[in-house]
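Appendix B. Chain record.
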Amino acid sequence: MFAVSVCASVLITFGILRASFDTSLSALLTRSDPYLAELETLEAEFSNPLVLNFVFIPAEGIDVFHPSVLNAIEDLTDSYSVIPFNDRLTSLVDYFSPETQLRLFTRPITEYSLDELKILREGAVADRLLTNNLLAKDASLTFANVIIQDIPLEDEQHLQIAEAALQLRDALRARNPDVDIYVNSEVILEQSSQQAMVDDITLLLPFVVLACVLVICYCFRSLTLGICILGHTFFTLLCTVGSLGWSGLTFNSISIIAPLVVVIISVASSVHLISICRQAQHRGEDQAAAMRTSVAVNLQPIALSALTTAIGFYSLNMCSSPAIQDFGTIVAVGIGFSFILTLTILPALLLWSASTNTGIDPSQSPFLQQSLQQLVIFTTNNDRSLFWGFTGLSFFTLLLLPLNETDFNRLDFIATDAEIKQFYDEVGTRMNRGPALTYGIDSNLLDGAIEPLFLAQVEELHDWLLARGDVESVASVIDLVKTVNRVQHQENPLYYALPEDIDSVAAYLNGYETVQSEDFPLSSFINPDFSMITLFVNAIPMSNQELIDLDEDLTGYFAEHFTAQFPAATLIHGSGILLFSRMDELVTVELLQGYAVSLLLITLSLIIGLRSVYFGLLSMLPNLFPATIVFGFWGLFVGQLDPFVMMLFSISVGLVVDDTVHILSHYLEARDAGMDQPDAISHSIKTAGAAVCITTLIIALGTTILIDANTIYFQQAAKLLVPIVILALVLDLLYFPSILKRFDKRIT
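Structure tokens predicted for this chain:
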């Protein structure tokens, strides 16, 4: 079995060469949202080039019209060509107003006095287009945007652009120390995500393996055991990642952590085999006989534990997010390899270890036996208090669960490092700007989008949005039409209004196209046949649920007011961030459904594995309450959950049931052998107690290390999973015996 397992593992390992990363945000998006098709429709109709957003923030006491900031922007103007595939730069320094057809700066920066710059500032902050796009209304921040060529780019080219932008940012900072400079873009988020992946794998994985192995070495007082477990874990990890490569799955910002989880579970699964083997050796059995005993005793509980844990993770496939599906699949596959190799490679490694039997004195009690004996006495003397205390706590926290809600600030999860978070914080604070939403309004008629009545409805939509307190600015083609109308009438403000006939609108737009700037091209606002327009909505900083509410209100307003006048008109939702927000809401529902399914399958597995409907159902009690208690107190003291953390419901049941399976298996074995109830409980705790304590310590320790992961979803998940795992052990050792005493009324 050892030889066959090693050969098979080597063949599977070659799949690592085919493993790849997918750092795009689309890897997280569900494909079932109807808004995804609308997003793709709008992207096909209107070009959307990649943009690098540089932000310049002056020192305290001055604004962006200070020479130090303007010189920094000119520095970028002179050096942005180092960025691959750059097309052009748009900034405050070279701003050309499409309304006045005038440039903001008509002379070199060095020729302006401070007084002249103050005058320019007054005109700039009054320019609505400028403050809606490049400038904060108090001139405390300005953007300079590098537009990338609108051509198909490979992932590797995206990373090259991101690296060049970050290097340019650092160089600008070095040359302009008095100005705070940041840069952000979708490609920077992707680059940051991939770097986080590499850091998590290269830095955390060795720590997890080392910490878990050292725990086992300490508990069993054997360095050789640590080496054997390293070998078992190494083969498990290679098989897991290799099978991932052969299957064509890719690592993403969620699934990248799966190998770490597999390592933790793999190390923990080996403990039971070692523990029972050591106990048999303490009773005087030789090494081979002790291993046979351990395999025979552990086969059923190890198989049940692997199956139930794998079910918990694989149930994540009920979620429509590809990233969550991949994470659940990879861990479930890893658990399968760990189970097989625990019964094939690990026993052989332990038997071939010359020092496995070293230091075992039959006269001494095995690890933790004295402490477990004291625990048995404690639970016996305090049986009534423990039962009603934990029962009351469980039902009290059950009532607290509705306090949890999945409303949160999405930037807390997108901004994975300090630099990106600082970028969003500064923009949100200084410009009161949060998510930017893009909509399309399709008249479904040739020239239908330039009908005056149609544009009047768009203007009413503008006014309705701006009257809300959660919208910072709105822009669409009506701004262009009204501006050109005013220009055509000698800048008379009374003519900043929509014309009354379609021919005037068409003439104005065609005239604008002849003088348009690259920053505000007509093609960004209306399609060539004048049938569809875009609507740009800049919201204030808001939470996930508030963003969904804004979209629902806008969609409802459109259906009630707009389509009443134009039944053929349709609203097209074209914002990726909106899809993420809706996905979070959908993921919550899907993960709860997955939890229900995994709970049912795990219960059925225990019923079949234990060959008892009664004890299969009974065993689930201590496994439901740990998550209930932890999430109940989380709702009381925190209250907000990232929907991705809802994965813990399915995962936690699969993980914590491991301890209950081993304790209950040894209890039923003792009862079938004729032991009375107290002796059977004592036997099960002393037999399985050491192993479940060590496995809990390993899982808790390994999960604690994940708090340092760059993947922020798992930082929060780790903070919740550690107390769940520890509490599960406490309930299994203190609460479960009291449950058995009350509900197992068999007489033997």
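Further analysis of this model is presented in Appendix C.
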